[in-house]
Amino acid sequence: MDKMEAPKGSGWRRRTLLSGLGGGLLAMPFIRPARAVAFPQRPIEVVTHAGVGGGTDITARMMMMQAPAELGGDMTVVNKTGGSGAAAIAYAASKPRDGHTLLLVTQSHILTMLRMRLPAQFDDLVPIARGTADAQVVMVRAGGPLASVAALREQGGDRSLKIGVTAVGSLDHVTSFGFARAAGLRQLSAVPFRGGGDIVVNLVGGNVELGVLNYAEAEAQITAGEVLPLLVLADERLAALPDTPTAKESGIDFSAMVARGYCVLKGTPEDRVARLRDGVLRAMRTPAYRNYLTSSGQAAGSAAGAEIWARQLAEYQSLSREALAELGLAR
Amino acid sequence: MEAFLGGMMVLADPFILGMTVAGTLLGVFVGALPGIGGSTTLALLLPLTIGISPVASLAFMGAVYCGANFGGSITAILVNTPGDPSASATALEGYKMAEKGEAGLALGISAVASAIGGIFSVIVMIVAAPLLARAAYNFGPPEYFALALFGLSMCAAVGGDSPLKNLIAAAFGVALATVGIDLTTGVERFTFGFYDLTDGIGFVPVLIGLFALAEMFDQASRQHTLGKLLKLDTVRIPGMAEFRKCARSIWLGSGLGTFIGALPALGATTAALVAYNETRRWSKHKHEFGQGSIEGVAGPEAANNSAVGGAMVPTLALGIPGSSTTAIMLAALVVQGVRPGPHLFNEQPTLLYAVFASMLAANLIYLVLGLYSAKLFARISMVPPALLWPTVFVLSVIGAYGPNQSMGEVYLMLFFGVVGLLFRRHGFSPAPLVMGLVLGSLLEESLKQSLLIFQDGWVLGFLGRPIALLLIGITVAGLAAPWIMRLQARLRGATEKRAA
Q1: CB-based contact (8 Å) between A310 and chain B?
Q2: Partner residue opposite A207 with nearest CB, options B141, B341, B343
Q3: Which of A75, B31, B412, B414 is geometrically suited to a Cys-Cys bond with B72, CB 3.0 to 4.6 A?
Q4: Which range is least confidently modeled, A264-268, B377-381, B412-416?
């Protein structure tokens, strides 16, 4: 739901307000044990490419409800919008690599790194933890000509189906590329829109035939019987969609999800990386965070440690590289 | 009906009523401050609303939204600085009225028109929201293309007296709209490597620069010659004669505003600009436009406030925000565990009607506020220039920096301040520029999307879209009207000559 960012509000004032409030409230009950070099010495900045109030911004703030207590220091969100993550990456790269800058990374950042020359590249990312992972679901119009997997494969083999994506060279575009290849479809013709909500409307309105969306983005239309979730691009079925088979069950070896997580940049001291990995993950295993995940339609287990997050980032990097080259969008 | 009454009952709860009043007052206040509009305020308050019940927080946010839209017109009229982008059309005539010493009249008609527009749209929303939610599916890229075309066709008539200068300004706006990553090719255009430009030129710095800063520059350079800010000899509440004169533009603005607001992705700013133009077109007193026409204040004010109600329709019924403010309200709803969509009307009607009820209340509150404290608000413009303009400058810088926390946007704002000053000096109006910027990207994107959707047969494709055809037909008729009328006049002249 990276795609459905709320337009930018002003973060500067609230940030000051929050850190002021949070600092005052949180510093009180925790008397920190003395350490040789105290970490964190100053507030940890969580750098996101999303505007205040967007889905990604909220993810960071939900993590930050508990993380300051776990880490024994304040946290603030820094919203550096612009350039599909480029501004956020450049900002993080401009900061000392001492663990006080946490970069919120999504697949968009990886695509941006592949497409633009930036001061930090994929190899500079040191994964900390994954915050959310939301399976993408292939959706069609309910009652339309593609309302079964067999119909999709048959018609998709004959002609190029129209799929709604969020932008050319976006996460959706890469997913649609990978899905078409795995399912043996002719390469899809992508129609770009501004956000997931637009895609749902155009799916119902019959302007596009396919969409890869998150469950929550189309929940209303699925419940209303206007959109049919055809295939879940995950290893297991979704709790919210027990009747929708996974792609693997239908013989298509492909999975895709919208993931958000945290990274620091290479050069950050090992012990601080370890502290961050531990503290951030623990902050996301709390009931409050789980509650946020389930209430926003995501799997309760989508917070995961550095190992899973690192593997996912690497897999995504290689798929994206291939897709961008094939689609003629590589740098 | 039961749900409707249940929703209205929430106003009997003193806490919720208190939140509504507080929200309206806050909204009017921040709306009046240039650069800090409803969306910024709601973003700032988002974390605070999480702690209270969904109904109370929605009532509060709905009230802030309504109040801010009205508040924006106060500064637009008094200092020619739209406090909220949606008031930019109000500044065109409202400030001229204030210069003539009719600031009180302009504020009064603005309050009345705003309240009528706001209440009209809430009533329409209550009746039609479930129906409009369905109609929205018929609005695809071809329809948006036709709509943007319709909007751009009006640019020649928006703003200054010279259609040619208006068209030049609009073309400049359309050119500016091409900056940023192209949605359909993913190619960066005219960004020169600046991250601040990759998502296109932001509306906020452009609007603050064109309106607030340019006004400051203009005032600063005229200070020693004129030596005064505004003449405010008469602060007068509008009477029946004025209302009668404006009735037509208020209803026109309310209807247009509700319709445009309800379209996903188009908000109050577009509604106000379109309404300004239509008010002028249908006015019996066309010569007053540009010299401080009271109708030119009433129309856009009714439109931008009715767009608020309209914008709630796609937000609640489809989960698609129609403006930046509703986008923040949408985020707040989701945080509260309320998922917007057509099913909301079946599952939680009371919550919906509570929002509507609070918006109705907010409209009434600022009507009272606007009518009875117009004199108080008028004092804002009595603030000595030496205090006022530095404050405007500081708020402009903060407003431009705030949303993205980027100095780049501040430089952009300064640049557009200079552009705005040059515009003024050479008889150009900023309004068509803003329209070109807003509609240009919509036009381009929806056309490219349409062509991708229709693939090879785009002619047949457009022929198969009745709504798009209708809008294109209206556009063509509007453009051809002057020629047809001239032709008619010439034919009539010819017959008369023959008769003689």
Answers
A1: no
A2: B141
A3: B31
A4: B377-381
> How distant is the Cα of A324 from the closest Cα of chain B, in angstroms?
11
Measure CA A52 to chain center. 16
**A289 touches B: beta carbon within 8 Å:** no
Nearest by Cα to A109 from A129, A86, A130: A86
Q: Which of B318, B339, B455 sits opposite A197 (nearest CB)?
A: B318
Structure tokens at A203: 């799916």
Q: What is the DSSP letter of A305?
A: -
pLDDT score, position A309: 95
Angle at A142 between CA A137 and CA A147, to 5 degrees: 75
Candidates B436, B264, B162, B328; CA nearest to A14 is B328
Phi first, then psi: give them for residue B467, nearest 5 degrees. Answer: -65, -45
User: Looking at the complex, does the CB of residue B453 fall below 8 Å from at least one CB of chain A?
Assistant: yes
Cβ distance B479 to B153 under 8 Å? yes
Specify the range with the lowest mean pLDDT, choosing from A58-72, A214-228, B263-277, B423-437.
Answer: B263-277
Of A94, A161, A188, A201, which to mutate for an interface test with B (greatest number of B Cβ within 10 Å)? A201
Q: At what angle do helices B349-372 and B103-135 cross, to 10 degrees?
A: 170
Digit-coded pLDDT (tens) for A245-257: 999 999 999 989 8
Q: Which helix (H) or strand (E) holds A74?
A: none
The predicted structure's pLDDT at residue B228: 40
A114 Cα distance to chain centroid: 17
- The pLDDT value recorded for residue B377 is 61
Alpha-carbon distance of A272 to A274, in angstroms, equals 5
What residues of A are in contact with residue B401 (Cβ under 8 Å)? 12
User: Which residue among B195, B340, B403 sits closest to A87, beta carbon to beta carbon?
Assistant: B195
The per-residue pLDDT for range A155-185, each reduced to its tens digit, is 999 999 999 998 888 888 999 999 999 999 9
Cα–Cα distance, B390 to B34 (Å, whole number): 12
For A3-61, write each residue's pLDDT tens digit: 443 333 333 444 444 444 444 444 444 444 444 568 888 999 999 988 766 678 888 98
The Cα A175–Cα A192 span in angstroms is 13
The pLDDT, as a whole number, for residue A33 is 46
Helices vs. strands in chain B: H and E counts, helices first: 22, 2
User: What ipTM was assigned to the predicted interfaces of this complex?
Assistant: 0.76
A201, A303, A187, A32: which is closest to B141 by C-alpha? A201
C-beta atoms of B40 and A81 within 8 A? no
Domain limits, chain B:
2-464
Tell me how far apart the alpha carbons of residues A218 and B121 are, in angstroms, rounded to a whole number: 27
Kind and range of the H or E element at A189?
A: strand A189-192
The chain A residue lying nearest B442, using CA atoms, is A194
Domains and CATH numbers, chain A: 2-133+258-326 (3.40.190.150), 135-232 (3.40.190.10)
Q: Which residue has the higher pLDDT, A14 or B273?
A: B273
Choose the mutation target among B30, B132, B334, B401 for the interface with A, i.e. most A CBs under 10 Å.
B334
Residue B429 φ/ψ region, left for φ over 0, alpha for ψ in the -120 to 50 degree band, beta for the rest? beta
Q: B184 CA to chain A: closest CA distance, Å?
A: 6
Q: Is A242 on the interface with B (CB under 8 A)?
A: no
Task: Record the tokens describing residue B362, joined without a space.
Answer: 């907010």
Query: What's this model's pTM, rounded to 2 decimal places?
Result: 0.70
State the DSSP string of B225-273. Answer: HH--S---S------HHHHHHHHHHHHHHHHHHHHHHHSTT--HHHHHH
Residues of A in contact with B180 (CB under 8 A): none
Q: What angle do CA B176, B181, B183 make, to 5 degrees?
A: 105
B232 touches chain A (CB under 8 A): no
Six-digit token string for B435? 């329209």
What is the number of other CB atoms lying within 10 angstroms of the CB of residue B11? 16
Confidence (pLDDT) at B92 = 82
